[in-house]
Design brief:
mainly alpha; single chain; two-stranded antiparallel sheet; 70% helix
Length: 322
């Protein structure tokens, strides 16, 4: 019976001087790898849309200006005024310019918040997953406490406290500037996103910290800091990047919700959420004021979610091939 096994048959063939048949090419593995390298039409469309939003947020405010006469665009709809295809809002501002400014503010808040959450959560999650023991218990308990608080309620509370109007020496309230409010939104949403990103990083670190190459690095005398940065972190980053893309989408929606509640971006700043909030009063007479930022927000969130799934799928395929 042993002679029928492939390994024994190969050994017998070598002893008898019989040449072995050529090994079959790993066509199936190559096919899987080839599929994993393609992002598909949906991924290309998502990348094109996100690139368009980024370029529009930078270029359109440079070339499009509001008319000198606000009455020219006040309450005008789509394609009613030459040179202003999206019309204007109730104050006479060009909606194309407003959407571009809103995209810039929304992207700054979302990307900045996730970057802050990724820096804090990624660092704490990496330390907790690698160190384990008492440090892991303390950090994980802290993450669980933050996750037990409803995230949107926590964001509203943080923004309300941090963006509270100051009082001058004359007793006159001094409203928070738009730039400082953007920074406060970044900090608040970054704190909210920290425990989620930390839990994802910790879970992946627990998996990679027990691999053979990590054990070999430890055996060769590498410090824990070097092992975490050089060996574990590069393998954890794909999962972190996938969750970060989803986090940007969630942060954009959260910023819109905060603006609708009145604690988000205020004038003279503009975001997609503030445009939705400002257009609610004109929903029956000019519904485009609400639907235009909603469509932009929907397509951007959908693109980010799709790209996050693409990154996760490519990471899962690479893991299965190992």
């Amino acid at each position: 019976m042993l002679e029928h096994s492939p390994d024994v048959a190969a050994a017998v063939a070598v002893d008898k001087g019989t040449p072995l048949p050529p090994a079959a090419a790993p066509e199936k593995v190559d096919f899987v790898r080839a599929r994993s390298q393609r992002i598909g039409i949906g991924g290309i469309v998502a990348i094109v849309w996100l690139a368009f939003v980024l370029v529009a947020a930078i270029v359109i405010p440079m070339i499009v200006k509001n008319p000198s006469d606000p009455g020219l665009l006040a309450g005008r709809g789509l394609f009613k005024v030459s040179g202003h295809p999206l019309g204007g809002d109730a104050a006479g501002n060009d909606m194309l310019l407003q959407l571009a400014k809103g995209a810039r503010s929304s992207l700054i808040v979302a990307i900045g918040a996730v970057a802050l959450g990724l820096a804090l959560g990624g660092t704490f999650g990496l330390i907790a997953g690698y160190r384990r023991g008492r440090i892991d218990t303390i950090l994980t308990s802290f993450f669980n406490i933050l996750l037990a608080i409803p995230q949107f309620v926590l964001a509203v509370a943080l923004v309300s406290v941090l963006a509270n109007d100051s009082i001058s020496k004359q007793g006159i309230p001094q409203p928070v500037g738009s730039g400082r409010r953007l920074f406060i939104l970044v900090v608040a949403l970054g704190i909210v996103s920290t425990p989620i990103l930390a839990r994802i990083t910790r879970a992946n670190t627990l998996q990679w910290a027990q691999r053979e190459f990590v054990m070999a690095a430890r055996a060769q005398g590498a410090t824990d800091r070097r092992v975490m940065i050089r060996e574990v972190l590069p393998n954890v980053m794909p999962a972190m990047f996938s969750i970060a893309l989803l986090g940007v989408a969630v942060a954009m929606v959260a910023e819109g919700g905060l603006s609708i509640l009145g604690v988000g971006v205020h004038l003279p700043g503009v975001s997609w959420g503030s445009l939705i909030a400002g257009g609610r009063n004109s929903l029956q007479s000019q519904p485009a004021l609400v639907f235009e930022p909603i469509v932009c927000l929907f397509l951007t969130v959908l693109s980010l979610n799709y790209l996050g799934d693409v990154v996760r799928a490519r990471f899962d395929v690479r893991e299965s091939v190992l």
